[in-house]
């Protein structure tokens, strides 16, 4: 048994006017709660330090730079790292990253229990659009403010296990999990900001969106025999509602814990990393069963190309 006690630290809404100091104080309160419950590892949402700013259009992209972190840890986030080290707790959280040479990424990091950043992931599947779209009920400008990630889907050894990260929309793509699965991942952690209504299809509401969320997580977990920990930023940010749905999925694809509210709160669960073994050694023993000679289109073709009509 290799038991990791994970705390999925859901965050309620972060309003535009909220400062980094206020948000970090909320994150520390969640961490203290998780520490009281004996957690080894705390996972926060995507873009945990700010409101989901890609819903706001700036004609001049540089005006959005104040949402980005040029340093990690920086003066405002250092207290979070300090508290994690005091608790001896590993952590992962998402933020908008501005690199020294001016690149912008939607990033998450993995921090070990000594407070050292041991892993970085930059979101690869960026949803939305890059110009103002008046057809949509609200904007989703991730393609305007971020570049696609350039680090692939690595995994890292930590706490006696193998961990990987992805971010929000990545969870809907089977390739995300499989690339990590091929490196033996035992726990995938991810944060998300998912509007509860489809901006291009008003009748697609929270029920359907929650179904697709669960479907994606459960399939990814089962097909790669890995734990999946998914953490929401939820509730109404300046009138824009994000769904909840913080949950933990086991390597058989079952939801073993979930939060039923949209506020700040921790969901704690003991995850046995050895529970990944059965699936990895039987039905999803990749070395025995995969047939890569037939998978070329997966990496050779981006969009669907149906055969010519007769
Ligand atoms: N943050 C993020 O990736 N959200 C997307 C919304 C998709 S609609 C453009 C998601 O997949 O949940």
From TrEMBL:
Q: Which residues form the CN hydrolase domain?
A: 4-275
Q: Does the keyword Hydrolase apply?
A: yes
Identify the Gene3D superfamilies for this entry. Carbon-nitrogen hydrolase
Among InterPro entries, the record links this protein to: Aliph_Amidase/BUP, C-N_Hydrolase, C-N_Hydrolase_sf
Listed transmembrane segments: none
> What molecular function does GO assign, one term?
hydrolase activity, acting on carbon-nitrogen (but not peptide) bonds, in linear amides
* Highest taxon listed in the record's lineage: Bacteria
Protein keywords: Hydrolase
Q: What name appears for this protein in its UniProt entry? A: Predicted amidohydrolase
Which organism encodes this protein?
Saliniramus fredricksonii
Its organism's taxonomic lineage begins at:
Bacteria, Pseudomonadati, Pseudomonadota, Alphaproteobacteria, Hyphomicrobiales
């Amino acid at each position: 048994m290799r038991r990791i006690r994970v705390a999925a630290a859901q965050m309620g809404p972060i309003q535009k006017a909220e400062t980094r100091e206020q948000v970090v104080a909320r994150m520390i309160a969640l961490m203290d709660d998780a520490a009281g419950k004996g957690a080894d590892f705390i996972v926060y949402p995507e873009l945990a330090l700010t409101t989901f700013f890609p819903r706001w259009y700036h004609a001049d992209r540089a005006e959005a730079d104040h949402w980005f972190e040029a340093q990690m840890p920086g003066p405002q986030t250092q207290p979070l790292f300090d508290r994690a080290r005091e608790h001896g707790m590993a952590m992962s959280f998402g933020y908008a990253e501005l690199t020294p040479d001016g690149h912008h990424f939607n990033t998450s990091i993995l921090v070990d229990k000594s407070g050292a950043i041991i892993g970085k992931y930059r979101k690869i599947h960026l949803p939305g659009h890059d110009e103002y779209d008046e057809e949509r009920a609200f904007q989703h400008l991730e393609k305007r403010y971020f570049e696609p990630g350039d680090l692939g889907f690595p995994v890292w050894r930590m706490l006696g296990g193998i961990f990987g990260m992805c971010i929000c929309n990545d969870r809907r793509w089977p390739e995300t999990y499989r690339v990590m699965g091929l490196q033996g991942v035992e726990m995938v952690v991810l944060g998300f900001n998912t509007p509860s209504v489809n901006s291009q299809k008003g009748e697609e509401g929270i029920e359907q969106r929650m179904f697709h969320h669960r479907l994606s997580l459960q399939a990814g977990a089962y097909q790669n025999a890995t734990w999946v920990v998914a953490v929401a930023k939820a509730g109404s940010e300046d009138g824009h509602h994000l769904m909840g749905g913080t949950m933990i999925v086991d390597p058989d694809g079952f939801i073993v814990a979930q939060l039923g509210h949209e506020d700040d709160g921790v969901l704690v669960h003991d995850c046995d990393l050895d529970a990944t073994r059965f699936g990895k050694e039987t039905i999803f023993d990749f070395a025995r069963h995969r047939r890569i000679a037939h998978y070329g289109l997966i990496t050779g073709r981006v969009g669907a190309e149906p055969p010519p009509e007769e």
